[in-house]
Amino acid sequence: MASEPAYRAYERRLHRILALYVAGFVAYLALLAWAERNGLPRHWLGPIFLFSTVIMYAAIGIYGRTSDPEEYYVAGRRIPPMYNGMAAAADWMSAASFISLAGGLYLQGFSGTAGQAGGLAYVLGWSGGFCLVALLIAPHLRRLNLYTVPDYFSVRYGGRWPRVIAAGAAVLCSFTYVVAQIYGIGLIASRLTGVQFEIGILLGLGGVLLCSFLGGMRAITWTQVAQYVVVLLAFLIPVSWLAYKQLGNPLAPLVYGTQLQKIAELEKKLMQDPAEKQVGAIFLARAHAYEAKLRNIDEALARDRTAAQERIRALKAQGADSALIVRAHREFAALPKDAAGAREARTRAVQESYERAKPLGGLPPHSQAYAGDPQGTPQEQEAFDISRRNFLALMFCLMLGTAGLPHLLTRYYTTPSVATARASVAWSVFFIVLLYLSAPALAALVKFEVMNNLVGSSFGALPPWIGQWAKVDPSLLSVADVNGDGILQWGEIRMGADIIMLATPELGGLPYVVSGLVAAGGLAAALSTADGLLLTISNALVRDIYCHEINRNITPEYRVILSKFALLGVAMAAAIAASFKAAEILPLVSASFSLAASAFVPAMVLGIFWRGASRRGAVAGMLAGLGITVYYMVVNAPPVRAMLGLPPGQWLWLGIQPLLAGVFGVPVGFAVTTAVSWLWPAQRVRVSM
Question: Model pTM greater than 0.85?
Fold first, then answer.
């Protein structure tokens, strides 16, 4: 198909449309910048960016609407490699890549701590994962002309259980992933419009549904191409500006190394600063106070409740501002409801206070190889080993998870041939690298900006964006004069990973229109991935479970209609889950990669390259790998441990963090699949690979 004249003409027409779109979007940015300089209020720019981009994506979704199964599920299998690469890059560069990757590098440094692997593991793991997709997975799946990843397990192994287990695993890992994206959508929409976080989720969700509900993969593909352009411009403009501002050169990936040396010098200075040491001592005292409350948790909880009620009564008696009274009510409502909840909260507060009492507020030196010291004390040597182990485990999970993510693999069903599927993966890597090379640079440039220009400022002279972001969610950004000297210290700043990228334009003093563009880019990244994930979940529920296990006598058109309504229901369920703010974006995404790696990769790779892999082996391997991964995550979840009466803390194997459980699940999956296939070799279906 790719060699036919009509297809070449189709590609040329797409090139013209893309060029016009890019030119039009740049002109739109220039128009908004001109309007801002001529008096357009800032509080209008946010809603303008939100609604204009969502309306644009929705218009593409409406234009691409279809009820044809081939178009809805695989976009007619006629997407050219370059455009499928752009769509895959947008599908891939989720809220985790755009919003949280630079933030992870900012907070964790290049390698992280003993308890949390560093940001470079994300860059290396995700990039390396695409090599596995290109070499091991995508061409072989495309050759089979299927629609979903569970289709592969059904065709390769036969029977019902491989498909059912694969569909259930696809729902589990994709739902975890999509909750993270919808959390990002709510975060950005609430910042752009000033509405509550929950309302922001609903605003952004409307754009998701209009794209994926109406046109399926066909509409999602062209929406993701448009979103990739927004994501790329939104990331490169602020990082290039910061690099030019600090170093006189906009090519950030080539010049940011200079700032790493300056950051190392500033870190040494902060470690010796008496004011920073004073802040650390105060947090250490708080940790001891929280530990004292843990000794008699019931009495401490009763005192806290009484104090909160007294504060509310005092504010009302003084005729205080209604906002203060509302805040006091919220603080009272946020207190733990029982002793188990209080113990969990106090334990978390103790750990956080001890971390913030450490030098640099608990953050590792930015360029540190690993935590600890291989030549130091036994404790330092252990910290070094655990840090290195978690770094490698995170890379492993991300690489194997990339090769197993259902929504990403489905992307390569849309190309015309096996050769174009390979080319499509190459284009995906190219478009992703454009952003990934800049993420470490952005983290370093932002950290230098904060250390050099923000730290040491008077609290009365702090820029207004700090208070504005704190109102969105105090866990994203909070500053407090801990030692009461009126000067902002490094240890008095608490920033979440999800704010670093979004606050970069304001931190660097760029026009507010760039802040709107960055927020629109984050929204585009979250929307593009949410589209693909919701489609994957709805297809697994309807096509792979309902139509094969419940009602086989269903027309293709009715199947598409059911998929659309399943997508709507899943989107609402994910929005409800995201509204609880159970975790930040990066941890949720890491968990989904571990789940995908352990559930799919062993049986998929063995099924492609080993004819001896059998149905029973695949079923046993998928259940064993996924089961060990879920068990390790669940047994280390604080709410579960509290509910089961287990002691606080974590029960770790080899010091590996719970979200990296795929490092245990994948080997178990390979071993069990291989062993059971040898014991029961007859149960298999031969498929030409």
Answer: no
